[in-house]
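USER:
I wish I could look at a protein chain and see how it folds. I am handing you a single protein, as its sequence and its fold in token form. As I understand it, each token names a local backbone shape. I hope you can help me see how the letters and the tokens relate. The protein I mean follows directly.
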Amino acid sequence: MDIEGAVASHYTQGSLERTLFAALEAAGKDPDRLTTGDLAGIDEFHLGWAAATEELAEDLGFTHAMHVLDVGSGIGGPARHLAQALGCSVTGIDLTAEFVTVAEAVTRRCHLSGRVSFVQGSALALPFETASFDGATLFHVGMNIADKDTLFREIRRVLRPGARFGVYDIMHQGKGELPFPMPWAMTSATSFVEPPSRYRQALAQAGFSLELERSHRDLALRLGREMKEKVAREGPSPLGPQVLMGENAPLRIGNVMSALADGLIAPIEMIARAA
């Protein structure tokens, strides 16, 4: 199996839609009348969760007239947030077919299908015309992609000149090996966590100029502690990470939070502009 096939297999459950809607009902939500807030604990599948999405969206400054591409859209949380909070139209693309199916189902029930759509495909060969988007986002995707040069060249290709591109990835910070399994990979075979310098290089070579770079490590650590304390007080939520990651979710979450606390990794935001 090639890397992309292995990555898609890693995220595929086969029954995610049924599991997700059962979890929503168990949490007291009406699956037919959802809001983006109902899903904030699960569909923001990145460190910093909804708070990080909100900060990145504010920094990007997208407007209602824009058509934005969300690369590696998962089950659609960031795409729906951008559409609802900023009013823009969003197209999400994800390698995992099951994620696309679930993203579409959730988006219909959030009554956002008119502004948010999803397609299945590879970020390394985007199925879109050149210069067809006004902006783009990438939330915790690069850790599964070794060829970041091609990734950023493809994103630059589909962006109009002057468009902003927001990257929010886990990046390597300190010395040492990462513990596995992680949320994005069970072993190092499909994990390609690299330092910010590698991202800067790939962005520049693809034709982007970097406008902002900052770490959200403190935010992720604080929110992680708060979530852990809430679980200790109230017990695990039906809408916890186990919905997406299965029964080994505590181990995977524990590993990523330990690496974060130890300074091995950090979630880094980068805002770049297409030349």
Summary: The longest strand covers residues 159-172.
